[in-house]
Write a structure and sequence with these properties.
This protein has 388 residues and is mainly alpha-helical. The protein is built from 14 helices and no strands.
């Protein structure tokens, strides 16, 4: 951890000998609080010191960065270390500020909701982390941990790039499978429509004839294989990792169920029931095909649903507002009546509570990884390829 370095307090002690006693006192108080783990109070002390100091702000900003790091506010810490590195005149302090900036930036990146699932953005930010460690080592070759962390960060970038490549390949494979499955479902839907039309035609023929010449066995023999084919397609789709195919598989399963019930109805020569079930099978197959449409269509449907929800929420708020206005008017009228009548309390209007999404505990997995744990400490020297 940063508190193990010792650099921060040695530099500040050297700095305070050149200043007024009141500045040195504030800084010393901040250092003592920092050592105790009271980062919030230490941060306030360092800010007080910054307000009254005319020199040495590079060191005070560095201390503020370590305090923010202790509070796990990595973005804020990163910015403070960046400011410190810019203001610092000595290479040793520049190196330390750049190194701590790298550590803070790494944790900010891995703990950010913005980079979750966005591998391209994560690679970009980790590349900046790598640059911080490289620059830190260039400023001070004795800072061996910078070289070690540079290697670890580059390895992490390499891993993410491999994952990104695999995901892109999987995406292409899923798209190919969706197109193939959509084509098969459309073919299956056409078959079902033909069978349904045949059933309708047979029903009309039977209604005209006093003694039906044709039965339903031929249609039943046509319907049963379709049911088996639909079932097979549904089972294949359920095994896919693609969420769109899994969603469509539910519709296909329902379609197969209605096809079986249509076959049973044909067996019993219940034409009306058979036609109803066949139509339902067609509807489910149609829904499955829509679920396999491209993501733009899916996104549009999602946006439409969100819009409907927002409209309903706004309508609900408007209705509540109208009820409240009406109630206020009624209460006002009642207050103008005889004072002997008791006043009624105004009804409370419940407000919609907004749900706050909790941040994913990304660092939990990172702590389990040995390499990622190493990036937080000044480890032993690791011989790395100096690609800088």
């Amino acid at each position: 951890m940063l508190s193990k370095y010792g650099y921060i307090f040695i530099l500040l002690m050297m700095m305070t000998t050149l200043r007024a006693d009141d500045i040195a006192k504030v800084v010393d108080e901040g250092n003592a609080l920092y050592k105790k783990g009271d980062f919030a109070t230490a941060l306030r002390k360092y800010k007080d010191a910054e307000n009254i100091a005319s020199k040495g702000k590079d060191l005070i900003l560095f201390n503020q960065g370590t305090a923010q790091f202790g509070l796990k506010k990595y973005e804020e810490a990163k910015e403070l270390f960046k400011q410190s590195s810019v203001l610092a005149k000595e290479k040793e302090l520049q190196a330390l500020a750049l190194y701590n900036m790298g550590v803070s930036s790494y944790l900010a990146t891995m703990n950010s909701k913005k980079t979750k699932g966005n591998l391209e953005n994560k690679i970009k930010q980790l590349t900046e982390v790598s640059s911080n460690f490289r620059n830190a080592y260039q400023k001070n070759h004795r800072l061996i941990s910078a070289a070690s962390n540079l290697e670890l960060t580059n390895e992490k970038i390499k891993q993410i790039k491999q994952i990104k490549k695999m995901m892109e390949q999987q995406k292409k494979q899923n798209e190919k499978q969706r197109k193939e499955m959509r084509k098969k479902l459309k073919k299956q839907l056409e078959k079902q429509k033909k069978t349904t039309e045949k059933t309708k035609k047979r029903k009309k023929e039977q209604e005209k004839e006093s003694t039906p010449k044709k039965g339903t066995n031929d249609i039943k023999k046509e319907q049963e294989p379709q049911s088996k084919e639909t079932k097979s397609l549904g089972e294949k789709m359920q095994k896919r990792l693609d969420k769109q195919q899994q969603a469509a598989a539910k519709n296909v399963k329902n379609a197969e169920k209605h096809q079986r019930q249509a076959s049973d109805a044909l067996q019993k020569k219940d034409m009306k029931k058979a036609i109803d079930e066949q139509k339902k099978a067609e509807e489910e197959l149609g829904k499955a095909i829509k679920n396999l449409d491209n993501k733009k269509s899916q996104k549009k449907n999602k946006n439409d649903k969100n819009k409907d929800k927002n409209d309903k929420r706004n309508d609900k708020k408007d209705n509540k507002k109208q009820d409240k206005d009406k109630q206020n008017k009624d209460n006002k009228d009642k207050n103008n009546q005889k004072q002997s009548k008791p006043k009624k309390e105004q009804e409370k209007i419940d407000k919609d509570k907004l749900k706050k999404s909790t941040a994913d505990q990304i660092l939990q997995d990172e702590k389990k990884n040995k390499q990622q744990r190493s990036i937080l400490r000044q480890g032993r020297y690791i011989d790395v390829e100096k690609d800088w």
